[in-house]
Specification:
It comes from Paenibacillus amylolyticus. Keywords: Cell shape, Cell wall biogenesis/degradation, Isomerase, Peptidoglycan synthesis. Provides the (R)-glutamate required for cell wall biosynthesis. GO terms for molecular function: glutamate racemase activity. There is one protein chain. The protein is of the alpha/beta class and 260 residues long. It folds into 2 domains: 4-94 and 209-258, 3-Layer(aba) Sandwich (Rossmann fold); 98-207, Rossmann fold (3-Layer(aba) Sandwich), CATH 3.40.50.1860. It contains 11 helices and 9 strands. The protein has helices spanning 15-24, 46-61, 73-86, 98-104, 118-122, 124-133, 145-152, 158-168, 191-197, 208-219, 242-258, and strands at 4-9, 30-34, 65-70, 91-92, 111-116, 139-143, 177-182, 203-206, 233-237. Helix 1 packs across helix 10 and helix 2 crosses helix 3. The chain is globular, with a radius of gyration of 18 Å. The protein starts with a strand and ends with a helix.
Length: 260
């Protein structure tokens, strides 16, 4: 039996990364594990979240997997170093795409706006990343905790979400920004709504492409041609509830229909 590639997140956010992997490697087999018993991670303490992550990874390792993608910026910042020391298969993490965003704006002098969870923004890993790449102090950060909760509820109400974005950015001069970084894997579900609020020149990026490219490099995968099907994915959750598995499938279908 071919070994599978596992994707892990607290909830359905990591499906935005899996979706990109499915498009790039439609002949691979995947596992998607959501820690639905403990989502969202953002409001919890770092120690609580680490415990949940280690329990989830232990469950994943009981499956026939050849790599684990930690498809969650918060989980990566808290645990990826320790997981790599413990596990003898590749562990691929994520980080907000601050470096490419800064490089995109270097010539224009525009600023970078990062959206992430409060826990991600509070971690040394994030602050070290910004310090390393933001040599002209152009990066601003805003936590958007409500988006994770709405996403988990499959709440994609356009009026509510666009009003929320406007409220969160009300004090900013958006013309000063060249790029918005989506630093939580839940946030890309709302890209189209965010686009309606931002000036046309502002680019929106996330870390999923870099993560999938790193997965390709570590596993020596070749880009494949074909169409993926849901049969290639085994959905698992810490709750084991059928409604949680159904939510994952519906969320993936939403991504596919929205061309995200």
């Amino acid at each position: 039996m071919n070994k599978k590639i596992a994707f892990f997140d607290s909830g359905i956010g990591g499906l935005t990364v899996l979706h990109r992997a499915l498009q790039q490697f439609p002949e691979e087999q995947f596992i998607y594990y959501a820690d639905t018993l403990h989502v969202p991670y953002g409001p919890k303490t770092a120690d609580e979240v680490r415990g949940h992550i280690y329990d989830a990874v232990e469950a994943i390792l009981r499956e026939n997997v050849k790599a684990i993608v930690i498809a969650c910026n918060t989980a990566t910042s808290l645990s990826v170093k320790e997981l790599r020391a413990r596990i003898d298969i590749p562990v691929i993490g994520m980080e907000p795409a601050v470096k490419p965003a800064v490089e995109m704006n270097r010539e224009s002098g525009k600023r970078v706006l990062v959206f992430a969870t409060a826990l991600t923004l509070s971690q040394a890993k994030y602050n070290e990343l910004v310090s390393r790449v933001d040599d002209h102090n152009t990066v601003d950060s805003i936590p958007l905790p409500e988006l994770v909760e709405w996403c988990e509820q499959l709440d994609f109400d356009e009026d509510k979400i666009t009003d929320y974005f406007r409220m969160k950015m009300a004090d900013l001069d958006l013309n000063m920004y060249g790029t918005v970084v989506l630093g939580c894997t839940h946030y890309p579900y709302y890209t189209a709504m965010l686009r309606k609020v931002l000036p046309a020149h502002v680019r929106i990026i996330d870390g999923s492409m870099g993560t999938v490219n790193r997965l390709q490099q570590l596993l020596g995968l070749s880009e494949q041609h074909g169409v993926w099907t849901e049969d290639q994915i085994t959905f698992l959750s810490s709750s084991g509830k059928s409604e949680d598995l159904d939510n994952m499938k519906h969320a993936l279908q939403y991504l596919q229909m929205s061309n995200l």
